[in-house]
Amino acid sequence: MGIDQRSDQGDISATVRGNEDGGRVLLTDGTGVVMRRLRPGDREAVRALYAEMPLDDRYLRFFTAAPADPARVAAAMLDRGGVAIGAFRGRDLIGVGNYSSAAQGEDPELAVAVSHAEQHKGIASLLLEHLVAAAAAAGIRRLTADVLLINHEMLRVIADSGYRVSRARVGDVVHVVLHLPRGADEDYVGAVVEREATADVPSLQPLLAPRSVVVVGAGRRPGSVGRIVLRSIVSGGFTGSVFAVNPGASVIGGVPCHRSVSELPEGIDLAVLCVPAQAVPEAADECGRRGIRALLVLTAGVTRDRELAGGLAAALIRHGMRMAGPNCLGLSNTDPAVRLQATFGPQVTTGEVGVAAQSGGVAIALTTELDRIGLGTTTVLSTGDATDVNGDDMLLWWAADGRTRAAVLYLESLPRPHQFARLARRLSRRMPIVAIRSGSSAAAQAAAATHTAATATPRVFRDALLAQSGVLAVDELTTVPGLLAVLCRQPAPAGRRVAILSNAGGAGVLAAEACARSDLIVAHFTAVTCDALAGLLPSGAAVANPVDATATVSAATFGRAVDVLLGAPDVDAVIVLTVATAAGDPLLDLAAAGNAEKPVVAVRLGQAVRLAGPTAAGRTAGSPEAVPVYGEPGDAVRALAAAADRADWLRSSSAPAPPPSGVHAPQAETIVAEALATQPAGCWLTPPAAVELVRAAGVPVAATDVVDGVEAAVAGWRRIGGPVAVKADVQGVLHKSHVGGVRTGLDSADQVSRAVRDFRDRFGSELRGVVVQPMIEPGPE
What we know:
This protein is an alpha/beta fold. The protein is built from 24 helices and 33 strands. The strands form 6 sheets. It has a 7-stranded mixed beta sheet, sandwiched between helices. Strands 17-16-19-18-20-21-22 form a 7-stranded mixed beta sheet, sandwiched between helices.
């Protein structure tokens, strides 16, 4: 299950539909409230909110110090149509927003009120956001509000909302019109992201940068998880206070130990829970009652148990805590002001890469290699089952921490893909993000579900989302350090033209082939470049690209050849490949290649490790020490291609996206409205409706016939005039091929007839119809 912490579109949609429990969102002070549709039973809470408003607040809301009776206000809000949404802290209603039903031809009027003690925390902005989402879902295109000119706070909320706003002053009142966007609006999306960042980052402070930590379940046995984590925190030099909870000890590993959470001093930020799964909900609730602000739950076996998961979720919501886990390895923050190593994995060294991984093993493998090559890490979080804090939160954290220069994600699922996309796109403009793909195959999806209870996002959708967000996707863990060595320490290439220089001709050929596979261009040198190389290199050298400097070239001459290539106007990047010979190792004098304007990658054939260097943190991009040295040409080329891909994306992402052609929004809205009219909770569209919706969105679709029998299916094949695919339309079946509901390559009346009869035998009365489509040439879906 998931704990709704943010105001992303998915959470808003749940609130708009009237979700009984609502969604939990974060305020700018890092605390949480629950937003949900108000019901008739909330009338007394609404009345109390208005009754307790100070006179100044009443005046700003009602333009008079003596508004109508609060009970009548509550009745008008809840009983006369429109939408009302409340913000609850526990059982207390602390803010309400509503828009009223409007007469034909008029725009609904919205209003927002927030408890005086809870103002200036972003509640009004969140209420406005939810109201607009509700109005947009109802097909409303404009909302109006009359705001007193002196009500600067509400006018600022509206101005900062990201919507297109019209204003007209009438005396001391400002008449405001909010124009609701039909689709994603960049200004609005940007405003939402800023609001999320403002609220999310402070809420993560007690978890990722706490001032005090307690390990609950710190065992006396040296090999227990709790004892290992406690030892790691202490030996890692945590700058804050450390406590432990164990009912049978007064001191563990030199740390003061308390018998229970209730005996702990007040004001502790983070509790690390290392207790059995059955004890997790109660331990979480005890932590909340003691005022602990965040949890790191290492225990496995909680998420799959509905009762335990529900109890843990209730404790988080009840006490407003953030949580990483359950079922996680822990977290590390190498900030010198924090130095937290709350993990039972190996300790990590300070550096510049942020890591978030659902798998603890993946996190260990990544951080070990990043430490080895000198890149190190800033914050490492094993998200585990990611019930609350996930990759989205880490994107916001890294954007704000001022230390992270690159990010790596291993996510087995994307529970909020639209939110992830907008956050990743925002951060990608500032730093490279690398995602390790998983769950592409049926076997991997099943493994992900077993591992972290995650439902893997379909590959086609996920890859498109990552590409549009500027995220570099890879399939192998071992690829990541090689990419980061270039992305973090080398300048971005201005284009895809590559010069290849080697002291072994065969190595240059291998690199040229790898460039072709990665869409890099083997540059065509000008006569000036060729002449410069010819005058420099030994006789017998090949000066056309790839350049063979011969096995007898000296290191100094080889280095000067690199300088020539870096200075060539027709070269965007240089790949250097060497083998050690009796004449020496040309890489030893690569110091001459210290050009900070173009990237250089090196390959030393036969070296023992896949990647050697950069070997120390803090070296500047373009310095010779920053040149990564690979063991294989393919690895070097892939890293350089990733840098070129990122540079291409950065150039293209700044340009506004062209409006899609062929889109018929009213037709699409009609199709969706007709489906929801019969099934308001949502449903899967029938094949004809699905095809029409996709066509309305401007997406080309293969000709599709939906028929009800053998003769009609054969007639459809004859109309198409070639091989067809025949698919069963069965109630409740989404993946037709999994149940034998697809036949392809049929090109005769007999084959089509047999397929339809087989569907009838297989599915019986559940068969609603048969889909007939022409076979299409193989290619991307």
